[in-house]
Write a structure and sequence with these properties.
This protein is of the alpha+beta class and about 260 residues long. Helices cover about 35% and strands about 25% of the residues. It folds into two domains: about 100 residues; about 150 residues, Thrombin, subunit H (Beta Barrel), CATH 2.40.10. It has a six-stranded antiparallel barrel. Strands 6-7-8-11-10-9 form a six-stranded antiparallel barrel.
Length: about 260
């Protein structure tokens, strides 16, 4: 019984006395109690700081991994959206091209642009149809907006097309308003010009220029472009005119070749 007494005293010191100090409303012990509580709170804060910091690091790592995963998923979704938009735009162009093909009373071949000349980007291009598809030099090339150019060279399964602003291109045209005929050709400067206009030609900025029945290659009435500049003739010389192509040549992706 006496041997157990020290243990009971220890229990009293570490359990009963602190309990009594915390709840005994004595002015003397109030300061002691507050000091103990402040010391305990500081000790807990010191112990918890590394634990909290470790938790923040682990939480940041988890959040960062989730962010990276979501970023990859969003990137994949965006790529699929872009692909769908491209497919949708291509389908719209194909529909318009097929509609034009159905309206023409000519045999045609649909072709895709597969390359462009890096030196003369807007004056020539390559298409994925060639001699094996019945193409030959001189054939007319068009799209739903109008005249694109003509076939210049052919190989087995590809062809080179020069565009209407190339200096080697020319086509008989007519002013849709005044019905005056002339010859449109490209130039070294990359613009399209009207030649063989009469001295008293009735031509104005904004006039629509279309292919003429005099053309042996292009069907009559296809849009070629719009007159953008007119320079009056001097001393018996005919006026000069510059034509803006109806087709955005830098954006051509699909064409029809008229056989």
């Amino acid at each position: 019984m006496l041997r157990k007494l020290p243990k009971q005293l220890i229990y009293a010191v570490f359990v009963i006395i602190p309990f009594w100090l915390l709840f005994f409303n004595s002015p003397f012990f109030h300061g002691v109690k507050m000091g103990l509580m402040s010391f305990g709170a500081s000790s807990v804060a010191v112990v918890r700081w590394p634990v909290d910091e470790l938790g923040r690091v682990l939480s940041y790592r988890k959040t960062f991994n989730e962010y990276q995963k979501m970023k990859r998923e969003v990137g994949g979704i965006r790529a699929r959206v872009v692909a769908l938009e491209e497919n949708g735009a291509a389908n719209k162009r194909y529909v318009r091209l097929l509609d034009l093909r159905n309206r023409l009373n000519y045999s045609t071949e649909t072709a895709l642009v597969v390359a462009r000349d890096p030196v003369n980007w807007n004056s020539s291009m390559m298409v994925n149809k060639g001699k094996s598809d019945g193409l030959r030099p001189g054939m007319a090339v068009i799209n739903f907006s109008g005249v694109v150019g003509k076939v210049a060279e052919v190989a087995g399964d590809v062809s080179k097309v020069i565009l209407l602003n190339d200096s080697g291109f020319s086509v008989a045209v007519v002013n849709q308003r005044s019905r005056e005929s002339s010859l449109l050709s490209g130039s070294l400067s990359g613009d399209c010009r009207l030649h063989y206009l009469p001295e008293d030609a009735d031509i104005r900025v904004g006039d629509e220029i279309v292919t003429s029945a005099l053309s042996s290659v292009f069907p009559e009435g296809l849009r070629v472009g719009t007159v953008s500049e007119v320079y009056p003739g001097e001393q018996g010389t005919p006026p000069r005119a510059v034509v803006e192509p109806a087709v955005e040549l830098s954006k051509v992706e699909e064409v029809l070749v008229i056989k």
